[in-house]
Specification:
The protein is of the alpha+beta class. It is built from ten helices and 19 strands. α4 runs antiparallel to α5, α4 packs across α8 and α7 packs across α8. It is globular, with a radius of gyration of 22 Å.
């Protein structure tokens, strides 16, 4: 089977009127396009192009993963995802309590975990995992010169206080969030502290008084170049800030928020499932498999992700197809053929689902991502 599939468009306020449209030549949108989903998730299932048949009907099952284009014009909420055990327990607990799946205070929409990878298509900015303690202390000490509250926080960071304790101090300090922009003065422009100050000021402009902007001080501020990726396993506190990316995740919709949002924040649950370990280098180390083919090795059993860069002199022939796959063209023009003698030519933004064949090949001139299921 080799079929073209359409995506489910999601219009959220943090989305963009031009990022997806410009990159894929779709024209100007009158509403913010935040995400386009490809897969069999109930929240937005793909359909076979040229028919009204859903992908799950066509293949007779659900995919273990979900693929999205994600366009962030404004920062998304700081958030974390549960592990499998936490998701099952949380979902069952909220069901037993009679909380509607659509209720604002609902944390768990299903009983699955949601590991995910975000690969930059354009330059992409994100927060991912906790900074090393030494950096946090450096930032707090620099801020303390103009804001006494950071002197108290620096003293806390200099002790054996846990990251969780410092995190909760910031999450609860609405007064500090409200005066931060005026009370914390600018610093040496090349310093980590000044970069952190500018980030926080920018977040507070979009989310006035939101303590999530203070929590951002504890997180790694990442600027990805196209092709670079970050992986968000269970417990990783993160936020996407700006740019266009390709997101691949287990087919779940469980999100526990921690700030930069008007939506429900369950501080106790957030603290319970967050992993407060330091994350030294959030960028995924890729693995070269062949000329023009790399893998993004991550600890998710539901999917495997590959980047294929094809030129006139470099094609990828007879690649194994052990499971169903989604192939997404993000640049140029890519031809995909299978051992069943099927063939489709994809342009930027076009997507196919391929299965049943034992082998497939990629040719042409362009770039594609291949997502294999479990």
């Amino acid at each position: 089977m080799l079929v073209r599939i359409g995506g489910e468009v999601k219009n959220y306020p943090w989305g963009s009127k031009n990022l997806i449209q410009d990159h894929f030549g779709l024209g100007v949108a009158d509403r913010e396009v935040a995400e386009v989903w490809f897969g069999t998730h109930d929240g937005g299932e793909s359909k076979i192009q040229g028919s009204n048949q859903s992908l799950s009907e066509a293949i007779g099952s659900k995919l273990s993963f979900l693929v999205k284009f994600l366009a962030a014009q404004s920062p998304l909420s700081i958030q974390v995802h549960p592990n499998s055990v936490q998701a099952k327990e949380g979902f069952a607990k909220e069901n037993a309590a009679g909380i509607s799946l659509t209720a604002a205070e609902r944390n768990y929409k299903d009983d699955s975990h949601k590991p995910e990878i975000l690969i930059a298509i354009t330059p992409f900015e994100a927060l991912c995992g906790f900074r090393p303690r030494a950096q946090v202390l450096e930032i707090f000490l620099a801020f303390s010169e103009s804001e006494p509250r950071f002197g108290e926080l620096a003293a806390l960071a200099a002790t054996d206080a846990s990251v969780e304790e410092i995190f909760m101090e910031l999450l609860e300090d609405r007064a500090l969030a409200e005066r931060f922009t005026k009370s914390v003065e600018s610093l040496d422009s090349d310093s980590i502290a000044e970069q952190a100050r500018l980030l926080t000021v920018g977040l507070l402009e979009k989310y006035p008084g939101d303590t999530g902007a203070l929590v951002a001080l504890l997180l790694n501020h990442i600027e990805l170049t196209p092709g670079e990726a970050i992986f968000l396993p269970a417990g990783n506190l993160h936020a996407y800030l700006s740019g266009l990316g390709l997101e691949v995740m287990a087919a779940s919709d469980n999100v526990i928020r921690g700030g930069l949002t008007s939506k429900h924040i369950d501080k106790a649950e957030l603290s319970r499932i967050t992993d407060f370990s330091e994350l030294g280098n959030p960028v995924v180390a890729t693995k070269k498999l062949a000329e023009g083919l790399i893998e993004y090795p991550v600890s998710a059993s539901e999917f495997r992700v590959y980047r294929a860069q094809i030129t006139g002199t470099n094609l990828l022939a007879d690649l194994d197809l052990p499971a169903g796959a989604v192939v997404v063209c993000v640049n140029g023009e890519i031809a995909i053929g299978t051992s069943l003698e099927e063939r489709e030519v994809l342009k930027k933004g076009e997507v196919v689902f391929v299965s049943q064949a034992k082998k497939f090949s990629l040719s042409g001139s362009g770039e594609a991502f291949v997502v294999l299921g479990s």
